[in-house]
Automatic annotation (TrEMBL):
The keyword Hydrolase applies. The keyword Lipoprotein does not apply. It comes from the Bacteria. Gene3D superfamilies: MazG-like. This is Nucleotide pyrophosphohydrolase. Pfam families: MazG-like. GO terms for molecular function: nucleoside triphosphate diphosphatase activity. Coiled coil: none annotated.
């Protein structure tokens, strides 16, 4: 994925439509939430089996909503001058500390189902 090329495409699309005045972090975060809700709606009422085996139509719909989510997320990063790759790497380091594999006594920590 060439994030810089994607950012250029998103910015050009926005500028061509004179949407810059509307693309502030508040509005973009609300739009991101709406798109995430639209993705959620695809899976509403599906069983775990159905959710893992979407019809071609639902799969395409999910793909489009995921793209919308990514576009708004990247646009927010652009507005707030956040390097998404750096932010993800930093957050993963925090997650590793929050969810360690070994406890303070040297025992392996098991995450997930405990039957």
């Amino acid at each position: 994925m060439n994030i810089e090329k994607i950012k250029e495409k998103i910015l050009a699309f926005s500028n061509d439509r004179q949407w810059e005045e509307f693309h502030n972090p508040k509005n973009l975060s609300m739009a991101l939430s709406v798109e995430a809700s639209e993705l959620l709606e695809i899976f509403q009422w599906l069983s775990l089996e159905q959710a893992s085996n979407l019809t071609d139509k639902k799969h395409e719909h999910a793909k489009q909503e995921i793209a919308d989510i990514a576009i708004y997320l990247i646009r927010i990063c652009m507005k707030l001058d956040i390097n998404l790759e750096d932010a993800i790497n930093e957050k993963m380091l925090l997650n590793e500390k929050k969810y360690p594999l070994i406890d303070e006594n040297g025992n392996k920590i098991e995450y997930g189902n405990k039957d």
